[in-house]
Structure formats: C-alpha cells, structure tokens
Amino acid sequence: MSLPILTITLLAPIVAALVIVFVPKEEEKLCKWIAAIGTGAALLLSLYVYFGYDQSVGGLQWVDFGGPVPWIKDLGVTYFMAVDGLSLPMLLLTNLIGFAAVFASWNVTHRAKELMIYLLILIAGVMGTFIAQDLFIFLLFYEVVVIPIYIMVIIWGSSKRVTKEYAGMKLTIYLLIGSAFLLVGVIATFIQSVLITGQANMSFEGLARVPFPEDFQIYMFGLMLIGFGSLLSMWPLHSWSPDGYAGAPTAVSMIHAGVLKKIGGYGLIRIAIYVLPLGAKFWAPYIAVLGVIGVAYAAMGALAQKDLKYVVGYSSVSHMGYVLLGVASLGVIGVNGAVASMFAHGVMAALFFSMIGFIYEKTHTRWIPDLGGLSHQAPRLSVGFMMAGMASLGLPGLIGFVPEFTIFVESFRVFGWLAVLAIAGIIITALYVLRAGANTLFGPAREEYRQVKDLRGAELVPLVVLGGVLVIGGLLPSLLFDMVNSGVAPILAHIQETLQIGGR
Amino acid sequence: MVDFALTHAWLVPLLPALAFVIIVFLTRPWPKLSGAVSIAAMFSSFVLASSVAYGVFTNPGFIERPLIYSLRWFGMEGFTVDVGVMLDPTSAMMLFMVSMVATLIQIYSTGYMHGDPQYSVFFSYLSLFAASMLGLVISSNLLQMFILWELVGLCSFLLIGFYTFKISAREAAKKAFITTRIGDFGMLLGLLFLQIIFGTLDLAGLAERVPHYEQYGISLGLLTLIAILVFIGPIGKSGQFPLHVWLPDAMEGPTPVSALIHAATMVVAGVYLVGRTLFLFSEVPGAAEVIAFIGAFTAIFAATIAITQREIKRILAYSTVSQLGYMMLALGVGSLSAGMFHLWTHAFFKALMFLGAGSVLHALHDKADVWEMGGLIKKMPITGWTFVIGGLAIAGIPPFAGFWSKDEILVVTLEYARQGHALGYLLFFLASFTALLTAFYMWRMIFLTFFGKEKPENHPHESPLSMTFPLLVLAALAAVGGLIGTPWANVWGKWIHFGHPHHGEPNYGLMFFSVALAVAGIGLAYRLYYQDEEKKLAKQLAERYQPLYKLSYHKYYIDELYQWFTRQVVDASAAVFYWFDIHVVDNIVNGLAGATKLSGQGLRYFHTGRIQTYALVFFLALLVITVVLAFGSPTLAGSMGGVHS
C-alpha cells in the first residue's frame, strides 16, 4: 500500500504550524523559514502528484488509503481524498500561491509568528476543499478557511477607504452567508438522495448518480449558485471583493483572490453542475448574463480606481465574469477555459498583490497619483508588476491568453452577441491595467522614492515562482489544458448523458 | 545549407529569442556584450533567412504549394491549435527583408544608443521584437499570428516608452497599446467567427474552406462582416484611419525603434496580414472595397497633415501612415503583388530616412524642428545625400525604388477603375494626388533640413561609421531595390501574386504622369523652401489659408476628440459605475446587514433564557396551530393533513 500522499500534502502546512507554536515569538525568521519549508514541501508534493497523474487513464487517482474510509456511517460520510484533472490544477495553484505568500510576508514584523500560523492553517483549509471527494469533508474545510481570514484581516490589515474591521467583517460575513445558502442546498440534496436511493452517500460521484427531479434540481442549484456565486464574486454579490482585498494583508489578498475564491468556481462545477445537471441547464443563461455584466461592470469599476489594490480587486471580479461565462456554456471547451482561467487568474492575481504589497512596504502608499517612476529604483519589482498586468490584460505568451480565448470560442458560439460585450472587456482591461502599471512605474523618477530598494533575496521568490508559471503556462498551455480536459470532459460527458435521459 | 534552412526556418525567430533570454539573465550588466549577443543572433538569423529565401526563390513550386510544417500547441475535442511554419515567396521575402533591416538597425543602434544607461535593456527589447516579428511572418496559423502580433505590440509599447524619464513617452506608449488593442478586439471577433464556422485557423485550411463558405451555412453578408472585423486589426496595427493616432506619437521612442518598428516592419504587419488572408477578402467584394477606400483615404488624409508638421520625425511618421494607406489600397483593389512590392521598397527608403533623421537628431542634440535646421548637408554629407536618395525614392523619381512600386499601384488602381468598379476613378485620383503631396512634403523637409542657410547656433557633425554604414546600405537598396519589379521584366510579380500573376503591359502614359506628379511636387517645394530664402511665400500662404493650415497642423483635431471621448465619456461613465457600486450595491448589502442586526436585537427579547417565557411561547404556538387546523382554511388544513397521509 502506497503512502497517503494527499493527506501528507495536506498535513505539511499543519505540521509546520504546530512546530511554529513551540518556537518563541522573538524568533521571527525561524518561524518564517519553518512556514517556507512547510509550504515548500506541500508545493513539491503537489508538483509530484500533478506530473505523476496518468491522464490517459483519467478519473480519480492518488486515492488515499485505497478508497473512501467510512467516518460517520449514518450520514454516509467518508474520508475520501483523491484528485482528478479538475482538482489537480487547483491543488497546485494553492501550493504555488501559499509558498509565494510566505515570502511575500517576509518583511512583516508585527506578530509574525501568529501570522505564519494562521497563514498555514488557511493554506491547509483551502487545499482540503480541493482534494476532498466527499461533500461533508468539503464543507468542513470550507468552514476552516473562514476563521483565519477574519483574524488576519483585523490584525494585519490596513484601513483606507474602509476600516480593516469593516473589510474583515464584510469578507467573513459574505463567506458565511455563502456557506449558509450552500449548507441548506447541500442538506436538502443529501436528504433527497437518501429518500430516492435509500442509502446515505456523501461522495460527489455517488450523489451525481442520483436522479433528482427537475424542480428540485432547479431550486437547489439556485441556492448553491448564491453560495458559490458570492464566493466567486459573481455580480451583484461581488461587493466584498474590492473592499476585502484592500483591507486584507498581502498574504490574505494573494490567497483569497488567487485561490480561495476559486472554490466557488470549483464547487459550481464539481458539485452544482455535476450533481444537478438539470438545474445547471436551467440556470446557465442567467449565469452567463451575470458573468457578462460582471466583466463589463467591474472593468468600468476598476477604471475609476486610484488605489492599486482596488484596481486589482475590481479586476478580479471582472475576470471571474469570464470564468462564469465559460462555466455557463456547459460545453467542454468553455468549461476547460473556465478552469484554466481560474488557474491563470490565480497566479496573476497573487503576483499582482505581492508586488503591490512590496510597493506599499517600500513607498507607504498605494495611491496611484502619488506614485510614479518606480522602474528607475526598482526594475525587478517593475518587471513583476508589468508581468502580472500583462497577463491580466490577456497578453499572449503569458498564461492568461489561451484560457480566455478558449472561453471566447465556446461562449461566442453558444451565446452569440452577448459574449461580444464580455470580449470587449479586453479593451477596458488594457486601459486600466496600463494606467495603473505605467503611471506607477514609468515617468520621471521621484525624489521621495529615491531610497526605495529593489526586490532582493527572499523578496524575489514570489516573482520567480509566480512569474515563472506565468511564462511557462503561456508558452506551453497544453501542460495545463490536457490536465484540465482530462477532468472536465468526463464530468460534462456525464451531464450530457443525464440531460439526454432527462430528455426535456 | 538551403535544405537545412528550409526545414529549420523556425530557427530564424528562435535565435533572437535566445538572445533576449541571454541578455536578460546573463549579460545585462555588460552593455557591449549584450549588444554583441543581440547582433550576432540577428545576423545569424539574417544568414539563415537569406538561405530560406534562396531556397524558396529557386523553386517555383512554392508559389502554388507553400512548404508547411507544424506541431500541436494545445488541443481538446473540437478545438485544436497547431503552430508552425509556412514558407512561400511572400513569407520568404518578408523573412529576408525583416531580418536584414533588423540587423542593420541593430548595428546603427550601437552608435545611436552609445552610453545610454539602459543599453542592454534596449538590445534585449530589440531582440524580443525581432523574434516576434519574424515568428509572425512565418506563422502558419492565424491564432499564432495573432499571438505574435500582440507580442510585437508589447515590444512596441516597451520601446515607445523606453525613455522612462519622459512623461510624454509614457503617454505615447499607453496610447499605442490601447489604440491597437481596439483594433485587436475587432480582429479577435473575426478570428472567433472563422474558428467557429470553419473549425480551423490554419491559413492553408482556411484558404481551402473559405471559398466554399455556403457549404458551411453562412451568407455572403456574414462573410463580409467577418472580413471587415478581421480588417479592424490591421487598421489599428498599420495606422489606418481612424486608428492612426498612435503612430505619430510613437516617435517618442528612440529613433532606431521608429525606423525598425514604426516604419519598416511592425506597422506593415497589418498589410502583411491582409495579404496573407486575401483569400478571404477576394471572396467578398464589399470588404475589399472598404479596404481600398480606407487605404486611399488614409493616404491622402495623412499626406495633408504631413505638409504642415514641423518635427522631422513627425513628418516621417505621417508619411508612413500615408504610405501604409497606399499599400492597403493596392490590396483592396486585389493586387498582392503591388501591395507587397510597395511594402518592400518602403521598408528601405523609410528606414533609411528615419535613420537619417536619427543621425540629424544625434548631431543637433535632439532638436527636432525642421525650421531650426538648414544647410546640414555640408557638415553631414553621408547623412544628407543618402537622405536625398530616400527622398527621390519616396517621391517616385525613376529609377529609384519607390517609383516602380508606386507606379504599380497606380496601374492596378486604374485597371480596377476600368473594370467598372464604382468610384474606382476616385481611388485613382486620391492616389495620384497623394503622390503629388508626398513629393512636396518630403522635399519641403529635405530643403529645410539639409539645404539653404546654415544656422549658426547648430554645430552639426557627421555620425560615426556604425551609423553611416547602415545608411549607405539602405540607400543602395532604396536606389536599386525596385528594379526587380519593372514592368518590362517583372520578376517580383512572377513570384508574389494572388490568383494569377499580373501581366500588365508597360503603361508609358501612366509612367510619364506619375513622374510629372513627382517633379511637380518637388518643384513646388523647391520654389517655396529653397529659392525663396526668406520663405515669404510659404508664410503668406499659411496666413492666407489659416483655417486650413491650422486644421492640418492640428491633425484635424482628432486627438483632441479622442481625448475628450476618453475623459468625458469613458472615464465619466467609469465614475458613474463606481458611484453606483459603492452607493447602491454596497448600501443594499449594508442595509441587509443592518436589518439583520436590528432583527437580531429584536429577537434578543425572545432569547431570554427564562423557561417560563419559552413555555408560554410554546403553548401559544401550539394553540395557534390547533386553531388553524380546526377552523382554518380548508386548503391549508388539507395540505397539512396531506403530509401524514
């Protein structure tokens, strides 16, 4: 019997957190190094799992303990950890960003020990949602995530347009409200499945085989859409996103925008669509409309911003609109694009926030009109910032373009002119990204920033890791797409089958 | 060697790409070394490209059947993208031209950028640009082309904004990127249509399928729309009206960049793309007419701006816009030969003139106003006389290169008119009038810059050999580069054509006409700016027709219009969206939160912890339910009963 490698990956940051608990809080550097080792180990393991996955076989692989381990028998809850082509990119993304986030927090001196502990718990929680193949365990991890987020925002956050307390509260309440809707939907679905099949089963695969009635599917999908949608900052449930990211410390912004909100997209595909295909069919056009509104609306919102973090905050809402559009197409090409786009956006958003974090550390401002000419003092920082920006505006050669194009192909085919509005978003995106980037970095050097030091040492890690992924993913999109496709295609095949039998 | 080159043509773009990586990661601290790496890679790829061109131009089979090889880039069911190489005379010609001009300009840059603190960075950008541009040229797939199209745009952005200490450079860089992005949006839609309808973006595949578009269930109208959407990309990239505004501002970049990217190579990518997809445009006469008219209009429009500009590089920039319009016109009337021929000759004389302008700016420490120059030819003979050759070429004086290609365009336009196309003669008139204006404004610039009285405050000196050598090579090409396309022995047309090769008889009348236009333009400039030493007549004319003069000098106020639109419409609506977001959407959220809080406070009275209260509530509730069940509405009672049954 092989090692339960996913469980080990999950435990790596938790073990690191436990070790840090016993380190005296004056030993800040040591705490950070332990966190780096913990997340680094998880990153290496997830790379190993990613490249060891056999795409030609497909399906769930790397199953821990050989299969579902019964846990709460009456409810059919099992400890079931496994990955497929849908989970793996998200797992890898979590650990890429988690590792980078530790280094992005390298200069934090205020209660660094606690920060690292919460950060590691957060990373483990997010990771758990992506590798759990059991609904109950998924929800459990999802709730684990909420606690550190709130604490981290109110202790290490910053108050600008809104206070950090407000931001933290907003983030947390949204997460909770989302999970409340989700919980209702999930419990109802579970009970209904017991009524239909007479068996208690919480695994996604098991639930997907239950023939739920159409009306039921439509209602439950609606509830889950509110839950996952608010997590994914779907318009009009997005307003936590800009405020929350602006108030949060760098590491939280990176993880939240980079990967936590992707739980929404992941859940939508893995749970809502997979288990409730008839509901998905009913809601798809509405999701598409909300997605398109989100793209255009948030892009315009980003254009009006002067605070760098708000620009990226709105920008991430806008990008999630593309993801929703891809998901709503309910076609393999579109959903592939959506998943790849989540990965791509995660990397670029994390890089963006880490660079903004450094800019803020070094200049004590994020206000674009007060910035300028930073490329003179900090060329590496500028490269990182521009790379994130260029990826965000969908520059080919970086990771964002192909997923976006793939979404366009499918959504243009399915939704026609509605998609054009979303595609037009690329112009507005270029406008706000270039304004933010060029006005911050280019132009004459400013006297007040003469002392600014470029990135060096540990500060370079986020740039190297995330920037490297941006380029590799851009040049070799098949590394990502083949994996995503091996996970998405069977799910959508299952849905097509169900829809045909449902035949309505 | 030739066979190796043909099967390894992908090395041509790869070598500069490697140079980019090497400079960025290894040699950046050593400027001289970086420059050497860049030039060595560029020259190697020029040698390879020459072999490719030799291989292609000695094998007539490539005209009908291009050499194509490709590999899968990514794919999924229903959507695959292959990237690869497509070699035919058109791409081989471009490969040769681009790699040669790029090599010359890199050599020139070693002199021009000497001592710049960002020297290594500059060469890394030039290498990245060359890689992207050469990759674009050999692309076998439209998506691949689009990707590299965007990458050359990125390089253009970086190089326009290269002097980061200048605010104007930063603004110009942004403007270039965003304006071309508007074009790319249209093009992207066009590509999406093509992918969805024809199931491929391979050039060869599309060339096969597009002519049978009815079998794919689409109408001529939709195909016309698709073609026009695709053409919006070139409108942006090749500076056609109304997206031309970025190109003159792009002169904020270092002059070698203006010569390479914004005259000889990148800006002609749009022309090249239209040439590459002529199978699409030839199917839809409506779209072809649009191209011809936009081209002709851009040509005359930019020429009328160029006649009053004062900055040497701006005059050249408007001239580039105008000449690009000329190329588009040729493609619009259906002649790949003429369009590509003008692209070829233009690359030489325009790169030459830009580099010459750079040499002048270098000598005068970046003083750019032609009215403050004069008599420079005495101190700068190589720059001056090579510039004069460029001026003769662009004006259309035989036997210089521009004459032959311009003549070819006039010939095909006239033929187009004679075939009975509505307004064909208007196109011909616009093209002819542009030729006259071109000769005039170019020689206005030449007389003001190089002839006439020397200005005592200027202390010009000839540039170093690294800069004059490329000028000499380009001058030679500008002089004789057109001889391969004379009407008597049209080697060019035999190799590069779409459909059937063009077998026009030499039209001596038209030749005479076009020379007369050129001589008239030069003569007028001579009269106004050389003979008249005080330039009295020119000033009088400007005063008498002041409204017209101002309109031209202020570029028809189009920049102002766009600026107004961006500020008053785009930014203002962004502000409205943001206001809506924080005042409406957010307030609803906060309101909901407030309501929850209030209800929480209200509900607190129920949550007292006193058993008596709970018992009371419990009792009351039971009472209510019983009463309802006993006396309530039958439907409600019935439905509740239904639960048990």
TrEMBL record, chain A:
Transmembrane region(s): 6-23, 30-51, 79-103, 115-133, 139-159, 171-196, 216-238, 259-277, 283-304, 311-333, 339-360, 381-402, 414-434, 455-476
Membrane topology per record: Multi-pass membrane protein
Compartments where found: Endomembrane system; Membrane
Taxonomy, superkingdom: Bacteria
Keyword Transmembrane helix: yes
UniProt keywords, alphabetically: Membrane, Transmembrane, Transmembrane helix
Entries under InterPro entries matching the protein: NADH_Q_OxRdtase_chainM/4 (IPR010227), NADH_UbQ_OxRdtase (IPR003918), ND/Mrp_TM (IPR001750)
Record's protein name: NADH dehydrogenase subunit M
Gene source species: Desulforamulus aeronauticus DSM 10349
From TrEMBL, chain B:
GO molecular function terms attached to this record: NADH dehydrogenase (ubiquinone) activity; NADH dehydrogenase activity; quinone binding
Membrane topology: Multi-pass membrane protein
Chief localization: membrane
Localization in the cell: Endomembrane system; Membrane
Keywords, comma-separated and alphabetical: Membrane, Transmembrane, Transmembrane helix
A GO cellular component entry from the record: endomembrane system
Membrane-crossing residue ranges in chain numbering: 6-26, 33-57, 91-109, 121-140, 146-165, 185-204, 216-236, 257-275, 287-308, 315-337, 343-364, 385-404, 424-443, 464-488, 508-529, 613-632
Gene3D superfamilies named in the record: 1.20.5.2700
InterPro entries, sorted: NADHpl_OxRdtase_5_subgr, ND/Mrp_TM, NU5C-like, Proton_antipo_N
Pfam families: Proton_antipo_M (PF00361), Proton_antipo_N (PF00662)
Coiled coil segments of this chain: none
Record's protein name: NADH dehydrogenase subunit L
Ranges where the NADH-Ubiquinone oxidoreductase (complex I) chain 5 N-terminal domain occurs: 73-123
Entry superkingdom: Bacteria
Family the UniProt entry places it in: Belongs to the CPA3 antiporters (TC 2.A.63) subunit A family.
GO biological process, one term: electron transport coupled proton transport
Domain NADH:quinone oxidoreductase/Mrp antiporter transmembrane: 139-417
